[in-house]
Inverse folding.
C-alpha cells in the first residue's frame, strides 16, 4: 500500500510537466494572432508556408534557422521602440498598426544593413546578393563563426586599452563563450565611454546611452555612425583605402598570395570594391557612374543624411502610407540640404537651386553634386522600408513586392 | 492416665479455650482469666492428690499470668479470626486425648517458656518501634495509588468477567455503528487513488510517448515535400483551403512568427533583411576585424593588432588614445 501511494504521488508530481507539454498556449496565441490578420496577409503567409513545404529537407532546416533569426531580429527591433512612439502605435487600428510596425522594422533593418555593407567586402556582398535565403543563412552563419573566433583577440585588445590587470584578463579568457561575449560588450562600452560622447551627441544624451545595456548601447553607437574600434570609423575611410582581405571562408593573406583566392577582390574599403549589386552600375540604366565633387567624407555625410530615420515612420503613423512616404522624403530633402550647406564645395546658389527641385529631379541633381554613393552610404530616392531593388535572380522563393 | 486426670485435663482444656467458644470477643479470649480463680480448677479435688495435674495447672496459670502481663498486641481483628479459623481446622478431627498422649510422649522443650518470653520481649520492642513511626499519610497518596492501579489494570491486568462482558458489548455496538461509514470512506479513497493513478499515467503517456494533437509539428521533418512550384503561383491545397475556411494548418500556426518574418525577406529583396540578422556584437567584431588591418591612425588613436596575421598580437602594446 505504501508503495502504491508513493507511485501515485510520483505520478501526481510529474503530471504538471505533462500538462505543460500537452497544452500549447503558444498555439492558441498564434491562432488568435492569425485571426487578427487581414485576408491578404493570411494569403501571403500561407503562400510562404507552401513554398517552405516545397523545399528539400536540408534547405528547409537552413531556411527555418534563417527565418528564426529574422524573427528574433524583428522582436529586438520592436522591443527597442521608445515608449512615446509605442503609445502612438497603440492608438492605431490593428491592421494599420501592423503596417506601420512593418515599415519601421524594414527601415531599421535597412539602416543596419547599410551599415553592415560598409563593413563587408564586395566579395561577401556579391555572394550574399546571389544567394537564396537558405544559402545566405549558411554564409552568414560561417561569417558569425569567423567573427566569434576573433572575440578573444578583441577582448585582449580592450583589456590593454582599459589597463585591466593580468589576473582579470586571465579570468576573462577562461570564461565560457557566451559570458566572454557579454564581457566583450561590457568592456567595449567602457572603452567607448572613455572616448566621450561622439560628435553630434551631447553629454546628457550620451549619459543616457551609457545607462543602456551594453548591446543596446552598441546598437545606438553603431546607429549614430560610430565604429566600435578606432581605425577609420568616425573620421572616414583610411586615406590609402586598405582593407582587410577575404570574405566568406577566406583564409587570409594577400589576394593572390599564399592562402588567397585568385580572382577574388580582397579589398574591403569603400570606393575600391567595384560595382555593387543593386546600385546602378557605371553604365547601367542610370547612366555612367558619377564621381561628384564632395569627396569621400562629404559622400558619407550626405549618405547618412539620406537614410530615413526609422522613428519618422511612427511619428507620421497617422498619415496614409503614400503621404507618409512623401513626408519622409521631404524630411530627407531638408536634411540633405542642411548637411550640404556645411560643405564648402557646394555654393549657396547651387544649394538654393537644388532645394527648389522635388522628387526624382532633386535626387538626380544631388547625384551630380555628390556622385554615386559608396556602398552602404544610401541610395538616392529611397523611402522608408524601401530597400534596394535588385533583379533578385535567386530570390524566387519570395513573392513580388507588395504594392 | 486415670479417668480423673483425663476429666480434669478436659476441664482445663475447656477453661483454656474459654467458656463460650467464639462468643467472647477476641480481646477477651486472649486474656484468659485466672484459671484457678474464675474456673475454680485450682480448687478441684483432683489436684489435691494428683501432683501431675496440679503441676500442669500451675504451669498453665503461670503462662496465663505471663500472658496477662504482656501489652495488648495491635493486631488486625481479621488476623485473629484467620488464625483461629485455621487452628480450628487443624484441631478438627484431632483427638484431645491423643494430643495429650503426644504431650506425654514428647514433652515440651525445657526452655520453651524462656524462649517464648524472649520472643515476646522482642515483639514488645517491635511494638515500641512501630509506635514511634509517624502515622500520617502523605496528602494525595490515595489518589496516586488508585491511578496507578487503574493504569496497571489497563495495561494488562485482566478485568473481571463482568467488566469484560460489558466492554465487549460496548465494542461490538461501536463497530456496528462505524462500519458503513468507514467502508464507504475506504471505497471512496481507493477510487480516488486509482483514478489519480490512471490520470497521471495517461497524462504522462500523452506527454512523453504520444504526440499531442495540438502540438507544433516538426516542420523540417514532417512537412510533406510538394512538387517544386513555379514562382508566385502556389499549387498547394493549403492556400485554397485557407481562403475557403480560414482555418490554418497547425504547423503554420506553430511557426506563424517565422512565416511573418518571411515577409521581410520578400519586401527587402532579401539581402538587407538577412544582413540585419547580424547583431550589434557581430557588427562590433566586424569593426574590430576592419580596424585590425589598419595601422595606427594619424592622430595617435590605436587600432587592434592584426588578427589575421597569425602572429601573437596580444603581445603588442598599442598606443593609448591621446
Amino acid at each position: 500500500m505504501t508503495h502504491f501511494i508513493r507511485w501515485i504521488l510520483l505520478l501526481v508530481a510529474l503530471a504538471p510537466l505533462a500538462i505543460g507539454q500537452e497544452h500549447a498556449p503558444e498555439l492558441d496565441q498564434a491562432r488568435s494572432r492569425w485571426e487578427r490578420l487581414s485576408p491578404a496577409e493570411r494569403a501571403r503567409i500561407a503562400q510562404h508556408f507552401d513554398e517552405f513545404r516545397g523545399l528539400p529537407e536540408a534547405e528547409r532546416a537552413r531556411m527555418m534557422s534563417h527565418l528564426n533569426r529574422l524573427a528574433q531580429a524583428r522582436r529586438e527591433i520592436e522591443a527597442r521602440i521608445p515608449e512615446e512612439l509605442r503609445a502612438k502605435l497603440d492608438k492605431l487600428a490593428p491592421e494599420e498598426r501592423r503596417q506601420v510596425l512593418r515599415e519601421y522594422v524594414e527601415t531599421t533593418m535597412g539602416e543596419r544593413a547599410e551599415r553592415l555593407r560598409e563593413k563587408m567586402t564586395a566579395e561577401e556582398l556579391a555572394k550574399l546578393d546571389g544567394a537564396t535565403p537558405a544559402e545566405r543563412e549558411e554564409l552568414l552563419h560561417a561569417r558569425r563563426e569567423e567573427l566569434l573566433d576573433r572575440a578573444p583577440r578583441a577582448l585582449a585588445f580592450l583589456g590593454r586599452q582599459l589597463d585591466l590587470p593580468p589576473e582579470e584578463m586571465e579570468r576573462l579568457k577562461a570564461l565560457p563563450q557566451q559570458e566572454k561575449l557579454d564581457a566583450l560588450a561590457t568592456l567595449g562600452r567602457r572603452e567607448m565611454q572613455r572616448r566621450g560622447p561622439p560628435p553630434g551627441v551631447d553629454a546628457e544624451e550620451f549619459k543616457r546611452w551609457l545607462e543602456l545595456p551594453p548591446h543596446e548601447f552598441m546598437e545606438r553607437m553603431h546607429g549614430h555612425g560610430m565604429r566600435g574600434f578606432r581605425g577609420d570609423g568616425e573620421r572616414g575611410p583610411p586615406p590609402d583605402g586598405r582593407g582587410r582581405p577575404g570574405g566568406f571562408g577566406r583564409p587570409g593573406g594577400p589576394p593572390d598570395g599564399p592562402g588567397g583566392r585568385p580572382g577574388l577582390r580582397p579589398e574591403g574599403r569603400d570606393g575600391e570594391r567595384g560595382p555593387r549589386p543593386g546600385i546602378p552600375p557605371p553604365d547601367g540604366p542610370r547612366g555612367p557612374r558619377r564621381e561628384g565633387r564632395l569627396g569621400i567624407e562629404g559622400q558619407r555625410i550626405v549618405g547618412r543624411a539620406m537614410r530615413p530615420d526609422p522613428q519618422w515612420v511612427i511619428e507620421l503613423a497617422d498619415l496614409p502610407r503614400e503621404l507618409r512616404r512623401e513626408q519622409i522624403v521631404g524630411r530627407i530633402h531638408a536634411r540633405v540640404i542642411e548637411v550640404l550647406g556645411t560643405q564648402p564645395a557646394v555654393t549657396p546658389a547651387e544649394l538654393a537651386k537644388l532645394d527648389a527641385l522635388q522628387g526624382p529631379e532633386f535626387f538626380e541633381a544631388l547625384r551630380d553634386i555628390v556622385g554615386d554613393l559608396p556602398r552602404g552610404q544610401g541610395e538616392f530616392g529611397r523611402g522608408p522600408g524601401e530597400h534596394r531593388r535588385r533583379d533578385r535572380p535567386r530570390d524566387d522563393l519570395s513573392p513580388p513586392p507588395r504594392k | 492416665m486415670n479417668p480423673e486426670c483425663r476429666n480434669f485435663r478436659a476441664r482445663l482444656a475447656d477453661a483454656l479455650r474459654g467458656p463460650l467458644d467464639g462468643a467472647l470477643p477476641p480481646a477477651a479470649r486472649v486474656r484468659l482469666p485466672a484459671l484457678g480463680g474464675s474456673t475454680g480448677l485450682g480448687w478441684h479435688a483432683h489436684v489435691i492428690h494428683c501432683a501431675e495435674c496440679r503441676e500442669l495447672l500451675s504451669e498453665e496459670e503461670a503462662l496465663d499470668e505471663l500472658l496477662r502481663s504482656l501489652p495488648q498486641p495491635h493486631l488486625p481483628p481479621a488476623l485473629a479470626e484467620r488464625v483461629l479459623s485455621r487452628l480450628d481446622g487443624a484441631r478438627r478431627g484431632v483427638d484431645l486425648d491423643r494430643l495429650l498422649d503426644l504431650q506425654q510422649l514428647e514433652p515440651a522443650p525445657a526452655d520453651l517458656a524462656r524462649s517464648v518470653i524472649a520472643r515476646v520481649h522482642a515483639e514488645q520492642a517491635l511494638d515500641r518501634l512501630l509506635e514511634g513511626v509517624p502515622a500520617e499519610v502523605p496528602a494525595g497518596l490515595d489518589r496516586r495509588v488508585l491511578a496507578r492501579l487503574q493504569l496497571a489494570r489497563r495495561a494488562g491486568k485482566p478485568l473481571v468477567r463482568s467488566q469484560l462482558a460489558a466492554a465487549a458489548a460496548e465494542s461490538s455496538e461501536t463497530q456496528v455503528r462505524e462500519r458503513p461509514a468507514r467502508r464507504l470512506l475506504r471505497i471512496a479513497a481507493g477510487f480516488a487513488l486509482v483514478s489519480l493513478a490512471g490520470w497521471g499515467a495517461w497524462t504522462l503517456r500523452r506527454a512523453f510517448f504520444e504526440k499531442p494533437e495540438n502540438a507544433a509539428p516538426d516542420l523540417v521533418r514532417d512537412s510533406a515535400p510538394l512538387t517544386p512550384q513555379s514562382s508566385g503561383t502556389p499549387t498547394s491545397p493549403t492556400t485554397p483551403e485557407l481562403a475557403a475556411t480560414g482555418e490554418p494548418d497547425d504547423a503554420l500556426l506553430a511557426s506563424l512568427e517565422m512565416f511573418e518574418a518571411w515577409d521581410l525577406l520578400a519586401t527587402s529583396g532579401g539581402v538587407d533583411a538577412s544582413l540585419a540578422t547580424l547583431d550589434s556584437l557581430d557588427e562590433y567584431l566586424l569593426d574590430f576585424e576592419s580596424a585590425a588591418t589598419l595601422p595606427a591612425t594619424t592622430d595617435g588613436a590605436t587600432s587592434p593588432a592584426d588578427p589575421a596575421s597569425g602572429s601573437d598580437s596580444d603581445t603588442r602594446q598599442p598606443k593609448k588614445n591621446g
Notes: Chain B touches chain A through 99 residues (CB under 8 Å). The two ends of chain B are 157 Å apart (CA to CA). Chain B has a mean pLDDT of 68. The CA atoms of residues 129 and 312 of chain B lie 113 Å apart.
